[in-house]
Amino acid sequence: MKIEAVARNALIARLKGRLHEGQRTICEEFVAEGDAIHLLQQRCRLIDEVLGQLWSELGLPASLALVAVGGYGRGELYPASDVDLLILLPEPPDSVLAAQLEQLVCLLWDIGLETGHSVRTLEQCLEEAAGDTTVQTAMIEARLLAGSASLFHGFCSLLKGSLDGQTFFQTKRMEQEDRHQRFSDSPCSLEANCKDGPGGLRDLQIILWIAQAAGYGKCWRDLEQRGFITGEEEKLLEECEAFLRRLRIHLHLHVGRREDRLLFEYQTALAEQLGFTATDARRSSEQLMQEYYRTAKTITQINSILLQNLGAALFPLPDEPPQAINERFQKTHEFLDVVHENVFVNTPEAILEAFLLRQQQLDLNEMSARTQRALWRARDLIDDDFRRDPANRARFLAIFKQGRGLVQEFRRLNQFGILGRYLPAFGRIVGQMQHDLFHVYTVDQHILQVLRNLRRFAMEEFAHEYPFCTRLLSDLGDPWILYIAALFHDIAKGRGGDHSELGAVDARQFCADHELAAEDTDLVVWLVRQHLVMSSVAQKQDISDPGVVARFAGIVGDERHLIALYLLTVADIRGTSPKVWNAWKGQLLEQLFTATRRFLLSREALPMPDGTIAQRQHEALRLMRYFALPQNAHERLWQQVDTVYFLRQSADEIAWHARTLHEHEHDAIDQPVVKARLNPFGEGLEVMVYTQDQTDLFLRIVGFFSRAGYSIVDAKIHTTRDGYALDTFILLDISDRDSDRAMIAYVEHELGDRLSHQAPVDIPAGGRVSRQVRHFPLQPQVSIQPLVSIEPDETGKLFVLTVVAADRPGLLFIIAKKLAEHGANLHTAKIATLGERVEDTFLISGAELEESTGRVRLETDLLKHLQV
C-alpha cells in the first residue's frame, strides 16, 4: 500500500515526535537513576513500538517478517547505536513489493532512525551467513518485531541447523586476536576503546556468541550452570559489564553521536558523571581510567579462561593420563595443570612455581583453564609472610634468570594481579595514566614494554633489530640485572617527589631482601637513580664537547655501568611511544656511548682541546683525500674558524664543509652556499648554510624549513672570523613524504635564493595543537644558565637556554623570533621532541644576556608566548 503525501507527512511527524520524546525521557531517567539496563531495554521497546506502528501503517504482506538483529536483536540499544534490521521474505520481491520496501526504508530515515538494514529470503540469509561470520553473528541474536512468526521460526531453525560450533569458535577467536592486535594487545591505551579494545564490551559479547552458536546458553547464568564459570566469576562479569555499559551510555550521551573511544576531551566530564571527584593528587579522569583499566584487565583474564574452557568442550581431546611434574603440577595435553583446584590454597608457594615451570618446561604450551582460574583466585594469598619467605624470593628471582618466557610470564603475573601483590609498589602503578605528553602507555604497561625491549636484545632471532645492543648485552654478562632495573625504574611514578630517587630506595630494599651481591645491588640502584641522565645529556648537551663527555664519564664511572645505562636508555625511550624513538635519537645515544667508552678505556685525564682538534683535523684530511682534492683545499676555511668550530663539528662534517666551500671558491663572494645531503648517520637531511651574516638569519632559516615540512632536530651555528655564518642543520621530514633525496635540490635552490635576496621571513603555517595538549596542558618552563665550559674564554659569555613546552606548529619559530628580538646569538641547538612534548636546549650569547635583568626579560617573554 502506497501512502499519500499528506498522510505520509503526518505519519513521519507523529512517529518522529514519539521517538524524540521517548528517547529524551529515557535519557533523563538514566541521568537521574543511572540504570544502564533500564535505558538499553527501554530504548529497544520504544523502537519496537515505533517500528510496529510503521509496519502496520504500510500494510505490508503478512507473509513477510521484520526482524531485529545484532545488538538491537539482543535487546541492547545504546543511545547512538544503529538499529540493525532484517526484512525477511518468503521469496524474491516483485516490483510492487520492492517499491513498498523502498518506501519503508526511506521512512525509517525520515523519522530519524539510523538503521542498518538488509532484505533477504531464507536462502539468501543462509548464503550470506555461510560466507560472512559477521552476518552470521548478527543473525544469531535475531528477534521478531512484526510479521510472519512461522517465517521467523523457520529462519531460526535453518540458521541453527547451519551453525558449526567449532568453525564459529575458531573464526571468532581469530577475529578477536586480530582486533586485539589493532590495539597493540593492550587494554591500557590512554584513549581506550571501551567497545572494541582488549577488555572492552566486545570481549564479553564474543563469549556469549560462541556459547549460543554451540548451544551452551545465552547469558552468564547459563554458562555458570553448565560449569564454564564459577558463581564468583559470574558475579564479577556482571559487575564489569555493568560498569562498561554505564560508561558507554554516558559517552554516547556526552558526545551526542556514536563514539566508543575514551578520548582525552571526554574523560573529565565522564568521570564527573560517573561520580569520580578530583583530589589534590589525582584528576577525576585519572581515577576513572584506572577503574576502566582494572575492569578491562579482569575481562581479558576471564575471557582467556572462558575461551579455553569453551574450546576444550568444543574440541574434546582424546583421553590420556596426565604426566606428573611434581606433587603439585602435571602436564595434561601440553598444558600446565594443577593436580587439584586447591593446590595454591594448600601450598601458596606454588603460585610463583607455576610461572617458573612454564619457563623451564619446553613442552608446556599454555596453562590450563583450571590452573589460570586457581591462580587468579589465589592472588590474595600473597601477604607479608609470603613475601618474606626465602623460598618465594628465590623463585621470584629465578624467573628473571630463565632463558625463555620472561616477558610472557611477567605479563601473565601482572594480568593475574600477582605481580602487584608480590610487589605492592608495582600494584600502585597498575593502570596509572601518565599525562606527560610522550608516554602512550600506563606506567605498568610501559615498564613491561621496557622489559620486552631489553629481552629482545638478548634473543638471537631479534639480533637484526639492534645488533649493537645485542652485542653489548652479550658482553655485559648477566642480563637479568638489567631486567630488575627495568622493573623498578618507574615504579615510584605518581607518589610525588623524584621518582628516580624514590624508586632507587625500593630497588635497594628489593635487592637486600633477595640477597643480590653487593656489586649487582649497586648497579641496579644506580641504574634506577640515573635512568634519565643519558638521554638528557645526549639530547640536550653538546656531546661533541670533550668536557661534556668527561663529565658524563664521571657519572657512569666504568664500562659496565655505561653499557647497562645505554641499554636501559634505548629500551626506555623505545617503550614510551612509537612516535618518540627515531634514528636520530639512536645516533645521539650511540655517539655519546662511543665517546664515553673511549674516554673510560683510555684512563686518561680530560684531553686538552688541542689534542681533540688535532685528531679531528687529521681525520677530516684523511676523508678529503678520497675526493682527490688539492692538499690545501681546506686552508681557506680553516683559517677563518676558531677552536669552538673544531670542537662542535665531527670530522665528517669538517671534511664536508671544506670540500663544499672549495668547490664554490670561484663563486661570487656575496652569494650564499647551501648544500644538502642525506644524513649520513640516520634519517632525514643534513643541510649546510654558508653566507654573509645577516639580520635574523636563524629566524629566516627556521621559517623556510618549517614551510618546507621539516623539523630541525639539531643545529650548529658558527660565525667565521670574516663575518660569515657557517651553520649546519639536521632535519626530519614531518610531512610523511618519504622523499628526502628528491628534496635536496629544492632545499639548495630555494633556500639559497631566499638568502641571496634577503626575502621576507617565511611565517610558518598555523595549525591546531593536539587533543592531548589541549586537555592535559603542560606549563612551559624556561631557564637560562651560564655555561660551564672547558674553554676558559667562553665561561660567563655563553648561556644555556632550556625550554620545555607542549609541541605545536611553529614553536621553534616563536623561540627563534624571541631570540632575535632580544639580540641573542645562537651557537648550537638541540631539539628534542618527545611525543607531544619538546625539551629544547640552546647555547646562546649576547650583550643583553650578560646582565641578569636581560636574562629575566628573555625568560619572561618566552614564557608569555609559549602558553598554549
Automatic annotation (TrEMBL):
Domain called HD: residue spans: 443-565
Annotated PROSITE patterns: ACT (PS51671), HD (PS51831)
Stored SMART domains: HDc
Keyword annotations: Hydrolase, Magnesium, Multifunctional enzyme, Nucleotidyltransferase, Repeat, Transferase
Required co-factors: Mg(2+)
Family membership: Belongs to the GlnD family.
Name of the featured protein: Bifunctional uridylyltransferase/uridylyl-removing enzyme
Species of origin: Candidatus Accumulibacter aalborgensis
